[in-house]
Specification:
binds S-adenosylmethionine, binds iron/sulfur cluster, alpha/beta
Length: 378
């Protein structure tokens, strides 16, 4: 089984924190779609004979496209690839873009998983983040989505926003859990270099919340989500049983995937490649029958590091049998020896021959992961 990711790089407004590749215009819709279809045709053999069991329409903002435009893309993908009947097909929606007719149209395209970019239920946060919608619109969007009969609905929330107190975060969580949601992605705000927030931070015009507040908000998230029956299957992802994102879980389980559109990544076990972050260049090169990408061969160390980076963030952790099978005794000894101190500090535990982060460990997951990286990687 394999997955397909499709990157729609258009947004109507620039969110101040966002480093995902996007352009704030949509004059190029038609030429972009033509280029995307061409890219898919050129790369139709990338997944070999694999069946495709997940498709993810992400962005940017896929909901800037009409149902007809999305249908053109999905029809083409279904013609070229062996997409299974019961595939998980996700679309990211901006709350400003939902309405009954649109949602019905998405259902007709057999899209069966909706991810709504809510970010916060508080207007002051949404203003600070420079979101397109306000909280009233976010509530309407979620209600419309549930009323349209979508059962597999997830929302994105951001915490650690400057000015957000623990109480504010608690109300955001309580309000979230008042809906019949099956999944939640909650991300700590990061200040990415080059974004508006990144630049403001550099100039001292905004500051990050302090580490203790971050930790309290993260702990509250875990506590509340678990009390409502959600399982934290990845540091930022919580799902009810049976509703984990199959597409994203496959990234973390080294399943092959093809990424289409500017900035999209692809992986086939041995190489990772990524399309250039340049919409005009993307369209131009596909007009000429080529596509521009960069790639790297994954040598054994890179594959090891990739595995650690992804698996340690999940509830399945580092599978020591897999490590021994893939990276032999050397890899196994390296991991087991290094894990000793983290186990002693209560940051990691061994369960069913897998090394898993404890809640304490999840708080400093990036530091632990970087200690596991095998030298030789940049
Ligand atoms: C590509 S966007 C989602 C879809 C859609 N574009 C939207 O914003 O509604 C993916 C998600 O990543 C999260 N995100 C992006 N940049 C972030 C940052 N710097 N810090 C924390 N979360 C971030 C947001 O929650 C966002 O909804
Ligand atoms: S968060 Fe979503 S809507 Fe905002 S700029 Fe990023 S991709 Fe676009």
């Amino acid at each position: 089984m394999a997955g397909i990711y499709i990157h729609i790089p258009f947004c109507k407004k620039l969110c101040f924190y966002c480093d995902f590749y996007h352009v704030v215009s949509h004059d190029d819709n038609t030429s972009f779609i033509n280029a995307l279809l061409k890219e898919a045709s050129l790369r139709k053999d990338y997944l070999g004979d694999d069946y495709v069991s997940t498709i993810y329409l992400g962005g940017g903002t896929p909901s800037v496209f009409s149902v007809k435009e999305l249908g053109t893309i999905l029809d083409h993908i279904r013609k070229l690839f062996k997409v299974t009947e019961d595939s998980e097909i996700t679309i990211e929606l901006n709350p400003e873009d939902t309405n009954e007719t649109y949602l019905k149209g998405l259902k007709n395209l057999k899209i069966n998983r909706i991810s709504l970019g809510i970010q916060s239920w508080r207007d002051s946060d949404l203003k600070l983040l420079n979101r397109r919608h306000d909280s009233a619109r976010a509530v309407t969007a979620l209600k419309e989505t549930l009323d349209a009969g979508f059962t597999n609905v997830t929302i994105d929330l951001i915490y650690g926003i400057p000015g957000m107190s623990l109480k504010d975060w608690e109300s955001n969580l309580d309000f979230t859990f008042s809906f019949d949601l099956k999944h939640l992605s909650a991300y700590h705000l990061t200040f990415e270099p080059g974004t508006v927030f990144g630049k403001m931070l550099e100039k001292g015009d905004i500051s990050e919340i302090d580490d203790d507040d971050s930790a309290s908000q993260f702990n509250l998230l875990i506590e509340k989500a678990e009390s409502k029956g959600f399982i934290q299957y990845e540091i930022s992802n919580f799902g009810k049983p049976g509703f984990f994102s199959i597409h994203n879980s496959n990234y973390w389980k080294q399943v092959n995937y093809l990424g289409l559109g500017p900035s999209a990544h692809s992986f086939n076990g041995f190489t990772r490649q990524w399309n250039v972050r340049d919409l005009k260049g993307y369209i131009k090169s596909l007009d000429a029958g080529k596509y521009n990408f960069e790639s790297e061969e994954l040598d054994i160390k890179k594959r090891f590091n990739e595995y650690i980076m992804t698996s340690l963030r999940t509830m399945w952790g580092i599978d020591l049998d897999y490590i021994e099978g893939m990276f032999e005794k050397e890899g196994y000894d390296y991991v087991v020896n290094l894990s000793g101190k983290f186990k002693n500090y209560g940051l990691m535990k061994l369960e069913k021959n897998s090394l898993i982060l404890t809640n304490q460990g999840k708080l400093i997951s990036d530091n632990i992961i970087s200690e596991f990286m095998m030298p030789g990687e940049e």
